[in-house]
Prior knowledge:
By secondary structure, the chain is α/β, with parallel strands linked by helices. The chain contains six helices and 19 strands. It has a single domain (5-144, 174-272), classed as Rossmann fold, CATH 3.40.50. 33% of the residues are buried. The chain has a nine-stranded mixed sheet with strand order 1-2-15-14-3-6-8-7-13, sandwiched between helices. It has helices at 19-26, 57-74, 90-97, 200-210, 226-233, 245-254; strands at residues 5-9, 12-16, 32-37, 46-47, 50-51, 75-84, 102-110, 126-133, 148-149, 159-160, 167-168, 172-173, 178-180, 216-219, 237-242, 260-261, 264-265, 273-274, 287-288. The two termini are 32 Å apart. It binds S-adenosylmethionine (SAM). Residues 18-20, 38-40, 47, 50, 194, 196-198, 221, 223-224, 226, 241-244, 247 line the site of S-adenosylmethionine.
Amino acid sequence: MQPEFTYEANGITLIHGDALDLLDTVVADAQVNLVFADPPYNIGKKFGGFHDRWESDDAYASWSARWLDLCIKKLAPDGTMYVMASTQAMPFLDLYLRTRLSILSRIVWAYDSSGVQAKKYFGSLYEPILHAVKDPEHYTFNAEAIAVEARTGAVRHLIDYRKPTPTLYNSKKVPGNVWSFPRVRYRMDEYEEHPSQKPEVLLERIVLASSNPGDLVLDPFAGTFTTGAVARRLGRRFIGVEREREYIKIGLRRLGIRKDLDGEALAPPQKTYVRRNGPGGSGNADEMTGDLFGPTK
Ligand SMILES: C[S@@+](CC[C@H](N)C(=O)[O-])C[C@H]1O[C@@H](n2cnc3c(N)ncnc32)[C@H](O)[C@@H]1O
């Protein structure tokens, strides 16, 4: 099957079409260093003309197995794959993937929610991410590139007396598997009109940890092309596939490829909000006339 639209230059490739139909023809086998897959979650969201709801968990699991197999086929022998899913769907993907790859980490992306929360059960404030590799003896993991401040004695300059020679606590460490990053909010510069845009800071950690400059990064469900934007900024090559034309337009603009498509100007979201504090304000918090909190899960 042929894509509806392809753009390719300077190591960046954008493909309009269905990843399950196209991946096998548009991506060479065993060449991708890093896959980041953030598929529709089967929770009933609307992605342009596409409704994210399968008829059963089994149907969703079978569909997921198809694209997981394709991505694994494209992954280099020392490649890494990150997979996101809803909390309810992740067990299906985890059980499938662990028979084909080595799962190194089960990551929780935790965020605060200022929106209305569940009143009769514990509302969801995280999304799970699997970190898996083809060969657990050979894979990229750039620990120093993603090191964070250790919140132990290092902050207070404490000395570790358990060592043969007492030394200061290490001040840097590899982050654990609970990652706290805010979701993309309307007011953020990176905000795009999409129901499930992921924050650049999340992708930065993944791309820095699991690829090197010049490596090839694949995102089969590119959405607003967050992975592409981060990969490009960090000097990686990138292939992104997206089914909805509206999101392809976002990708073309966000990756600095085109200012227009078929005569239509590709403009960033026009945000409208009335400032109530600061100079000329009324003293209350900022008031938006758009979606106050951005996309919710
Ligand atoms: C969860 S979103 C990805 C969001 C993305 N990570 C971002 O930061 O913007 C999933 C995307 O997959 C797209 N999609 C759904 N089915 C697809 C398919 N079969 N092939 C390619 N893209 C698909 C949807 O249109 C949606 O934009």
